């Protein structure tokens, strides 16, 4: 029989409790870091888009080479993690087709074009305007109430985009591509559609990773006819030994990992908090544009970025608050 010294057992217990608290704290910090990392990863997309564009890769082929790897990774993850998440009801197929074709396909196509013809910051800020379209479409189609707070947030977000575009600055207006602005607005619109379809799928009990996976599959099927396999082969041959790794990195960093991180975070913390933390994307895009493409932001464009991001966060919180009270 082992007899513990007086007080020794309680000291060991306190040490064990402290270790458990430390581990729990580290886990919580990691969960909070995940949506931030997702935003940064999504913000880095312009680096890959412009690199492949310079090598002569068209938009369809670029998206196909990225999404096919993401589909393989997510499919394997779901198969290993929980095969039940791969099941969908045939009657709900239209939701995933809509989310993939009208959502993901449209987002990626227009966002890539916005990156090609404008700054990374402008493309990302315009994409972040998707809650404005969600609120507008909800008011138009579902007769949701349009409050003064929502209206002011939308107006502030729009004005912030104007500042980021630098059209108000002397001599800057001619350099702003109308196509970049149009495609950026289009990406926000398609993102709003994806949000609506995702919400419909979630309302039917589907897991976020299931929704992401089948929407990616739907968009991949649409990309196949316009994809040029010969272009992928040529770039792999001419790009050197590092090109396969660069293509894999493109898919991991801009698609698979951020989706996994973000989905994991919203399963552990409030979705509104996760979306706020993921608002790092426009700031990351502006930083990457400066570091890699010498896109030096003006004071007004930086102010516009923070104005738009703040307005979108306030708008998202307003929406979340209404949904919680209803």
How are the SSEs placed, and which strands pair?
Blueprint: H1 8-43, H2 45-54, H3 59-81, H4 93-117, H5 120-127, H6 130-141, H7 148-165, H8 178-203, H9 208-223, H10 229-238, H11 243-266, H12 271-277, H13 280-293, H14 299-325
Q: Would you give an account of this structure?
A:
This protein has 326 residues and is mainly alpha-helical. It has one domain (36-325). It has 14 helices and no strands. It has helices spanning 8-43, 45-54, 59-81, 93-117, 120-127, 130-141, 148-165, 178-203, 208-223, 229-238, 243-266, 271-277, 280-293, 299-325. α1 (8-43) crosses α13 (280-293), α3 (59-81) runs antiparallel to α9 and α5 runs antiparallel to α13. The mean pLDDT is 87.
Overview features:
mainly alpha, 326 residues, 14 helices
Low-pLDDT stretches: none
Mean pLDDT comes to 87
What overall form do the CA principal axes indicate? globular
Share of residues in strands? under 5%
H and E order: HHHHHHHHHHHHHH
What is the count of helical runs? 14
How far is the first residue's CA from the last residue's CA? 61 Å
Structural class: mainly alpha
Number of strands: 0
Number of domains: 1
Radius of gyration based on Cα positions: 22 Å
**Oligomerization:** single chain
Largest sheet: none
Helix-residue proportion? over 70%
Question: Quick summary of this structure?
Answer:
By secondary structure, the protein is an all-alpha fold. It has 14 helices and no strands.
């Amino acid at each position: 029989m082992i007899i513990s010294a007086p007080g020794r057992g309680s000291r060991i217990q306190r040490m064990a409790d402290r270790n458990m608290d430390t581990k729990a704290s580290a886990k919580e910090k990691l969960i909070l870091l995940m949506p931030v990392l997702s935003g940064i990863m999504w913000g880095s997309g312009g680096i890959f888009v412009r690199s492949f564009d310079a090598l002569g890769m068209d938009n369809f082929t670029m998206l196909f080479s990225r999404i096919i790897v993401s589909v393989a990774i997510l499919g394997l993850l779901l198969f290993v993690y929980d095969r039940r998440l791969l099941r969908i009801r045939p009657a709900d197929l239209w939701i995933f087709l809509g989310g993939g074709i009208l959502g993901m396909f449209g987002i990626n196509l227009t966002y890539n074009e916005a990156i090609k013809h404008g700054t990374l910051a402008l493309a990302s800020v315009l994409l972040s305007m998707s809650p404005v379209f969600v609120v507008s479409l909800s008011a138009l189609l579902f007769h949701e109430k349009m409050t003064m707070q929502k209206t002011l947030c939308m107006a502030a977000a729009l004005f912030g985009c104007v500042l980021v575009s630098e059209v108000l600055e002397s001599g800057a207006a001619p350099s702003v591509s109308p196509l970049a602005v149009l495609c950026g607005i289009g990406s926000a619109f398609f993102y709003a559609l994806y949000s609506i379809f995702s919400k419909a799928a979630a309302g039917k009990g589907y897991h976020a990773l299931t929704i992401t996976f089948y929407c990616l599959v739907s968009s991949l099927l649409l990309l196949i006819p316009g994809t040029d396999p010969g272009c992928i082969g040529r770039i792999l041959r001419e790009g050197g030994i590092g090109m396969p790794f660069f293509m894999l990195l493109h898919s991991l960093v801009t698609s698979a990992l951020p989706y996994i991180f973000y989905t994991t975070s919203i399963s552990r913390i409030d979705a509104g908090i996760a979306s706020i933390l993921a608002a790092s994307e426009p700031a990351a895009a502006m930083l990457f544009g400066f570091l890699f493409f010498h896109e030096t932001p003006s004071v007004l464009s930086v102010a516009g970025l923070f104005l738009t991001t703040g307005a979108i966060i306030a708008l998202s919180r307003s929406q979340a608050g209404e949904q919680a009270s209803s």
